[in-house]
Amino acid sequence: MLLSMMAKSTTKQQILDCGYPLIVSKGFSSVGLAQILQYAGVPKGSFYYYFKSKEHFGEELLLSYFRNYQQRLDELFDPARGSGYQRLMGYWHRWVETQTEEGTASKCLVVKLSAEVADLSETMRLALLKGAEQIIARIAGCIEEGIDDGSISPLPAQPTAEFLYHLWLGASLMSKLQQNGQALEQALQRTEALLGGKSLF
pTM here? Predict the structure, then answer.
């Protein structure tokens, strides 16, 4: 029984893991079910055993993505990594790396899918929104810790976290349009200035 449950869980996760690079590269609408099945190496019946529809698959993909993202935040925001400021800047530096490096292994699904699925699927929109709000809450928590340890200037944590996350989403979109990392580097400079209590411009 246990082995059967593990096999089912493994197959479902295999489909999700194989679907991620396709969708983060091409978008949700541009990837057909046949591509996902071929890449995952599973029959069509297996897909519909785990997912009611492609939309349901998209929702589950987002939930899986955000679970993994939270685990990465656990590592990046570990107090052993330094002050609140150091941990936050480590997070933003990692953001720059993932958005500018070759390949799709760590690309952001929020950046890729938000505009596309907002009017396409309400369940996927809500999954994206909930995941983004959870990330913002973690950023706000790290800002509060930085204020407490004196490494970050006194700021309202939640509004600052929202501003920074929105800034970085916009910078990521501009970097895709410009095909370079200039917007991300500017976001990094603005973030350093804001957290350090300096002028943004």
Answer: 0.90
What's the rounded Cα separation, in Å, for the pair 95 and 110? 13
Pick from 175, 142, 172: nearest CA to 160: 142
- Give CA–CA dist 121/108, Å, rounded: 19
Q: How do residues 99-138 score in pLDDT, each as one tens digit? A: 887 755 567 889 889 989 888 899 999 999 999 999 999 9
Q: Where are the domains of the chain?
A: 58-195
Q: What are phi and psi of 151, to 5 degrees?
A: -90, -15
CATH number listed for the domain at residues 58-195:
1.10.357.10
Amino acid at 147: I
> CA nearest 135: which of 185, 182, 94?
94
User: What gap in Å lies between CA 108 and CA 119, rounded to an integer?
Assistant: 19
